[in-house]
Amino acid sequence: MAKLIKLFHTSTRYYSGVSGNIKARKYVLTKYFNGEPKKSDFKIVEEELPELKDGEILTEAEYLSVDPYMRAYMIGYKLPTDMIGGQVAKIIESRNEKFPVGKYVVGQFGWRTHTVCNPHKPLNQVFMPTLLLNLGSHPVSLGLGILGMPGNTSYFGLKEICKPKSGETIVITGAAGAVGSHVGQIGKILGCRVIGFAGTDEKCEYLTKELGFDHAFNYKTTNIRDALKEGAPKRVDCYFDNVGGEISSTIMNYMNHYGRVAVCGSISSYNDSILPKVSILQPAIVFKELKVEGFLVNRWINRWEEGINANLNWLDEGKLKYQEKIYHGFDNMVDALIGILKGENTGKAVVKVK
Length: 354
Ligand SMILES: NC(=O)c1ccc[n+]([C@@H]2O[C@H](COP(=O)([O-])OP(=O)(O)OC[C@H]3O[C@@H](n4cnc5c(N)ncnc54)[C@H](OP(=O)(O)O)[C@@H]3O)[C@@H](O)[C@H]2O)c1
Hints:
Number of strands: 18
CATH superfamily of the largest domain: Medium-chain alcohol dehydrogenases, catalytic domain
Largest sheet: 7 strands, mixed
Mean pLDDT: 93
CATH class of the largest domain: Alpha Beta
CATH architecture of the largest domain: Alpha-Beta Complex
Bound molecules: NADP nicotinamide-adenine-dinucleotide phosphate
């Protein structure tokens, strides 16, 4: 169909008929994960896209996010189901003047190349597609990382759950990942002593030499209790728990009175079908009067921009650094998901669609 270009109100262009010509590619999960995700758990299918109605936009994905929660959440969906996930996408057709062609949106569109949606009608219960803030010279992919969901997880999780005070000691597991590496840097900005646990010596070196962590230990090769004695001589006031399992029990037993634990995730067992048994925690929680609180970042959906702007300001001031692990190609989504679950990434992992 011929591509018509019309003027919409004063300046917004919209292209009528593009959507009818484009087929989306998307991942459909056809088998529940058993252990590590596998390519054979998915099929990639093509989908016809409808012509846009008033208020709708057509987007083309540039970066897709791969996150640990994807491994954990899919058990809650009836199969077959479209794969979930966030993406940064460019608007390539619009019948919505607030979402003009050429702008970027961050949306929970799932693992798919093209999407038609009305951004004012939520695709899921929590996250509406939003225009990506002007990131200046920063890459748009940061909308999935330090200037997006993981950034806000770090910002709100640390500040609101751990409530660290200057001079206190924070311990972070999963410390070289998207959330952990960011939490540690905010901890340093707030004047704390920051100790990280990560899975390779290279990651630990990055945390101390590049990001300013006071100590970082390879949890695969170090005795955790000895590492805590060395890195946290005044014991631990705040624990940001990304991994769960026995390492978390050891850390919580090494905390100070009135310590605070932000339980963010438990990636150490996401691929396990039988959950591990770990040392009992109640004595430490009772006798040290610990506050242990789980959270989901969407608790702060009404303060979303506050977190993004705080992180953007720190980034612009040179106080926040980041690394991205960029996988290439829509066909490599599963490899990317497998990769983060076994620690291939330092910082945020994203897939560049083309
Ligand atoms: N509550 C929320 O709202 C919320 C939001 C976002 C993320 N999260 C959670 O936060 C945690 C970190 O997420 P992220 O996006 O920042 O992922 P990430 O840390 O960038 O990637 C996952 C990392 O986990 C580590 N890992 C894998 N297996 C492990 C194991 N058995 N023990 C310890 N570490 C292991 C790997 O690093 P190593 O090389 O160090 O092993 C890997 O690089 C996850 O648990 C996630 O589910 C929660």
